[in-house]
Amino acid sequence: MVAWSFAMSKPEMTERLAVLNLPHPKGLNRELANNPDQQRNSQYARAFQLPGAHNLLTAERLAGWVQGEAKRAKYIEAMKRSDFEAMLNYYKRNYPRPPYEEDMSDPVRLKVPVLLIHGLDDKALLHGALNGSGNGSTAT
Q1: Whether the predicted model's global pTM rises above the 0.90 cut
Q2: Which of 5, 72, 84, 139 has the fewest beta carbons closer than 10 A?
Q3: For the chain (length 140 residues), average pLDDT per consecutive 10?
């Protein structure tokens, strides 16, 4: 979201944009406003917004998806140097909160190349938010 926001607010400082697994903000906004599945799947982000949420996170818990004992150990070591409260501050400050209302304003049209990589099996950010990307209805 930081990259999208920067590119839209500072086009003169943006040569190209690469985004991994975050649909255009207007697409995400549309899905949060209209798609109960996206609302349900975004519950993790709302949980991150709760006071003290950082106390529920551990490096070991966050490394559960990492395959291989050696890789997992490196991941855990790196995560233990992280500040979970600082990481969740992004969600507390920026992630949309209910009630969700669709932003009907005109999209900011980027005039730079955009590479958007999105896993269609992502459980948190559903691929419906990609609809319209690239044709001007959510992103160009």
Answers
A1: no
A2: 5
A3: 93 96 92 97 95 96 94 96 94 91 90 94 92 60
